[in-house]
């Protein structure tokens, strides 16, 4: 086998040299929000099961869901739902081979980020 000095050579591009693009960050965030929505859905199912179990257990579950932490989880879940929906629409656009150029893809990414924030605030105002 050849004697190769690998000690001085860098490995593949790593976090020190890689600059994440907006499209990669939004793609990762889409996966994170999808998993976070599962957690929020489980919390809602727990709340509904507690409602069918009895008044004592429902009072406990309802106290948790309506606490500041539950409100925070539900608010972030609402944002995650809007973000995940808009990111899905963005991927549908890309699946039709539209807006694939770098500047257009970055514009779509910003639209997803800003749009999810605006729609979340709008939903909270309407639902309050």
Protein model, in words:
The protein has 128 residues and is mainly α. The protein has one domain (22-127): 3 helical TM bundles of succinate and fumarate reductases. The chain is 76% helix and 0% strand. It has helices at residues 22-53, 55-65, 68-95, 102-127. Helix 1 (22-53) runs antiparallel to helix 2, helix 1 (22-53) crosses helix 3 (68-95) and helix 3 runs antiparallel to helix 4. The longest helix has 32 residues, at 22-53. The mean pLDDT is 90.
* CATH architecture annotation name: Up-down Bundle
CATH-defined fold name: 3 helical TM bundles of succinate and fumarate reductases
H-E order: HHHH
Helix content: over 70%
Q: Could you give the distance between the termini?
A: 71 Å
The oligomerization state is single chain
Quick overview of this protein structure:
Helices cover 76% and strands 0% of the residues. The protein is an all-alpha fold and 128 residues long. It has one domain: Fumarate reductase/succinate dehydrogenase, transmembrane subunit (3 helical TM bundles of succinate and fumarate reductases), CATH 1.20.1300.
């Amino acid at each position: 086998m050849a004697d190769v000095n690998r000690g001085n050579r860098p490995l593949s591009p790593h976090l020190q040299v890689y600059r994440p693009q907006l499209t990669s960050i939004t793609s990762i965030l889409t996966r994170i929000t999808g998993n976070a929505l599962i957690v929020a859905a489980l919390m809602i199912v727990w709340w509904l099961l507690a409602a069918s179990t009895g008044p004592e257990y429902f009072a406990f579950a309802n106290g948790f869901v309506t606490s500041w932490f539950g409100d925070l989880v539900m608010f972030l879940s609402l944002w995650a739902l809007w973000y995940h929906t808009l990111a899905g629409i963005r991927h549908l656009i890309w699946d039709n081979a539209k807006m694939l150029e770098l500047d257009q893809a970055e514009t779509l990414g910003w639209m997803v980020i800003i749009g999810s924030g605006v729609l979340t605030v709008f939903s909270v105002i309407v639902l309050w």
